[in-house]
Amino acid sequence: MNLSSAAGRVKSTLPWLLLIALAVWPSTNPSPNAVRLLFITAVWTTTSLAWNLVGGLAGQVSFGFAVFYGLGSYAAAVMINSGRSPLFAFAGAAAIAALASFFVGLPTFRLRGPYFAIATIGVGEAVRVVMNNLDSTGGASGYRIMEKGAFRQIEHYYYALGLVALAVVIASIVKNSKFGLALRAIKQDQEAAAAVGVNPYFCKLWVHAIAAALTGVAGAVHARYAAFIYPGSEFAFQTSISILLMPVIGGIGTIWGAVLGGVIFGIVEEEFVVRFPNIHLLLYGALLMLIILFEPDGLVGLMRRTMRLLKRWFWSKREDSGSPDADKVLWGRGSVEGRKL
Amino acid sequence: MTATDYLDLLIKSLLLAGIYAAMAVGMTAIYGVMKIVNLAHAGFLMLGAYFAYELFERFHLDPILGAMLALPVFFLFGMAVHWLLVRWLPKSDTPTLASLLLMFGFWLVLQNIGYLVWGNTAYSIFTPRSLASVRFGEISIPKDKLIVFAAAVVSLIVLQIVFARSWFGRSMRSLIQNPYAAAIVGVDDQKTARLSFAVGTAFAGFAGALLAILFPFTPDFGASFQLRAFVIIVLGGLESVSGVALGALILALLETFSINVPLPLYWHGWKFVYLPSSYQPAVSFVLLVVALLVLPKGIAGLLERKWRVA
């Protein structure tokens, strides 16, 4: 049996099975707490996937995603309060976040690497200060979302689930497209990418807009669920940090890394914060340092490495590359189990 | 606003610039030699503040002496951090994201250790001197501000002399100018990097202790000052003590005058309005982005360019 094609088949069907399982899961009458946990996890995972497009794929580390998260939530809140339907509000949140991303990106993408990262810190904090003082949305004391009709948690859950599925689809489309190839080229060497006809500035702007739109909708979905938002949480530097940490922990630049990071973060955040409110960021900081020092590809990189090791231990006898020369180089022999390769 | 008021503001911003420069100079030393944007600077500032606080509470040590004591202690701490974490980073001519994220992770760790140990209530150091002030005619200046300014300026002058005259300063400047040429003539880059990181950390701790005299502090206290330090070193051109002093002065002047001086605004005709003081923090953040965009080499770079053209 060909191992790699089987693994590929599992890899392509697994997400759909997972999605179906998550869609059917509410019919087993789970507790509201469990639904809430998965809801939050889906929201975080969406932001993680979005950040990963800019930070992982294009290599532009941004410390300012709270801007889009917050603007999305405020935009949706204002629209819902003026009687629009939730879907309309989410679309509006995406549009406003994407628009904001151009305002942020047009100047800051003139900068490279860490300078861009530092500039995004400045932008994020400036926006937070402004929102803290904006009277029309209640300033620092927050903004309440009033919606007609009963609160149905399952509905919120399905919105979040749909959103995270959408995010995975968008992320894999971007990653596997020519556009994604251009982004990866920019990450590796911007000058070389420009030399072969990629416009780094426009590519960065567009991927930033896509990521911002997704982050904005995530903020909107969460805001509608929370029904109360305030700049100290939506626009906090902490929110930007969380959005950045998930893909870095999971595995920067890979879709499954971003999802894994988001799931771990969501669950740990919800379960851990209650019990040890002060330790969780300490753990994330330590984890971030360990990952940078020992495994820059995050948990996905770690998993790949262990899989390779396991494969070498257990399946080394069966595994052949189909080419005797390559096998000679790889395993130092020309035949396996007496079989001439 | 009378002329005296303007003079008062000018003096206040000058005093603020002193402490701002001391706060930013550590970051410059680290950036210049290692090209690391030290996001853990905020953590060092915060630890420096609590260091002075603990010494004051437990041993009734004057916070100024506490700040002086912070220099050697944080020097050793910086050496340890470099030995434990920073030296493993890949070397580079430009700042790398690995270094940014590593220092960021370290900041998170320091900040949350701060929360664990001291909680999230704001502390402040209150000495008999805290409310005293010196009068010069119509202008009165708090004594603490004067003392902090003096300490900051003296330490900066000493640092400038060390950079200009000593073995360490020479090898440091050679690494800043050209690391390859420095390596060829035998500059030990690891040793210099370790020492500059230690000096940077020492100054962060020192500045943190000085800031603790003037402002109340929480474990999150370094964050806004760290952003100001960025603004200053970007304005100052990233790698010189005099540039830092200039950047600090500009930032302090802008921060003070932006909220105390009416600004022209066109809204149904020209008007003069005051910027609400709650927007003051945004001044430095906006300045950071603007400075990064239009002055990539800082004010010194701008002047250099002018002179070259002339």
Structure keywords:
heterodimer, A: 341 residues, mainly alpha, ABC transporter involved in vitamin B12 uptake, BtuC, 2 domains, two-stranded antiparallel sheet, 15 helices, 74% helix, 2% strand, globular, B: 310 residues, two-stranded antiparallel ribbon, 72% helix
Quick rundown:
The complex is a heterodimer of chains A (341) and B (310). Chain A has 15 helices and four strands. With 341 residues, chain A is mainly alpha-helical.
Q: What would your notes on this structure say?
A:
- The complex is a heterodimer of chains A (341) and B (310).
- Chain A is mainly α.
- Chain A has 2 domains: 18-292, ABC transporter involved in vitamin B12 uptake, BtuC; 297-341, no CATH class.
- Helix content of chain A is 74%, strand content 2%.
- In chain A, the strands form 2 sheets. Chain A has a two-stranded antiparallel ribbon.
- In chain A, helix 2 (32-57) packs antiparallel against helix 9, helix 2 packs across helix 11 and helix 6 (153-176) packs across helix 7 (178-188).
- In chain B, the strands form 2 sheets. In chain B, strands 1-2 form a two-stranded antiparallel sheet.
- Chain B is globular.
- Chain B has 12 helices and 4 strands.
- The longest helix of chain B is centred in the N-terminal third of the chain and has 32 residues, at 3-34.
- Chain B has 310 residues and is mostly helical.
- Chain B has one domain.
- The chains are: A mainly alpha (341), B mainly alpha (310).
- The A-B interface holds A 59, 61, 107-108, 110-115, 117-119, 121-123, 125-126, 129-130, 132-133, 237, 241, 248, 278-279, 281-282, 284-289, 292-293, 296 and B 37, 85, 88, 94-98, 100-102, 104-109, 111-113, 115-116, 223-224, 227, 230-231, 234, 276, 278-279, 281-282, 284-286, 288-289, 292-293, 296.
